Amino acid sequence: EKGRRTRRGAQYKSHRYSDIDRSAHPGIWTLGATIGATYNWQTREAGYAYDMSFKGGWGANAGVTATFKALEWLSIRADVLFTQKNFGMERMQPELREQNIHSDYMCHYLQIPVMADWTFGGEIKSHIYTGAYGGAWLGGNASRKTLLVTDEYRARYEFTPEDNRIDGGLVGGLGVSWDPMPYLRIGFEALFYYSMANTVKRQALMNDTRYNNTVVVGVSTKYVF
């Protein structure tokens, strides 16, 4: 009888310690999915192409996201994302000042950001993200209106030797998250990707630099374990 009480007491203590330990350390890893919208524009040095003007474009963003909780207020986050960095271009013909050539570019990128997630707050947490990213330009489509074709047409973008398909730069932003259940986290965020890779390789006669700037607004759901 005494042995049974001892074993039950040991089991009870072990069970209670597990509960206390879980509440004190409510989850080290998260894994989930993120989806959102992008707005991208290019900053450039015109060189001699003064007849060209660029505008921003909307796109989509989706992928997987994971975090490792290093401290109570600091996590390391890494994502694998499919991101659209779209933009438009107009070029005026000097001989026909009323007629422009208009092009819209839909550019698909794979990018992998790695960020520090600085976390503050209680039930609803605030996040500050800082880090860097690398990526690659996978392909895209081009929609053009020219002097010879009055209607717009869409075609797959054909890469040229002048295209730089390697991307990378800095990323930062803000977010909020909420845990409606112990193992579920829902987050909202706005991130800014500042590319440090010129999309055009350096040319001998004209320094035509074009850098992407991308704002991503999205929502994420994560499993906490």
Descriptive labels:
1 helix, 10% helix, disordered N terminus, 225 residues, mainly beta
Description of the molecule:
- With 225 residues, the protein is mainly beta.
- The protein is 10% helix and 67% strand.
- It has one helix at 2-24, and strands at residues 29-45, 52-71, 74-84, 87-93, 96-121, 124-145, 153-156, 166-181, 184-195, 209-224.
- Strands 1, 2, 3, 4, 5, 6, 7, 8, 9 and 10 form a 10-stranded antiparallel beta sheet that branches.
- The protein is elongated.
Q: Structural class given helices, strands, pairing?
A: mainly beta
Q: How large a portion of the residues is in β-strands, by DSSP E?
A: over 45%
Order of helices and strands: HEEEEEEEEEE
Number of strands: 10
Number of helices: 1
Spans where pLDDT lies below 50 across 5 or more residues: 2-25
> Which overall shape is indicated by the principal axes computed on the Cα atoms?
elongated
Secondary structure: helix percent: 10-25%
Taking the sheet with the most strands, its summary is:
10 strands, antiparallel
Q: What gap, in angstroms, lies between the N and C termini?
A: 39 Å
On the 0 to 100 scale, the average pLDDT is 84
Kindly provide the radius of gyration, computed on alpha-carbon positions and rounded to a whole number of angstroms: 25 Å
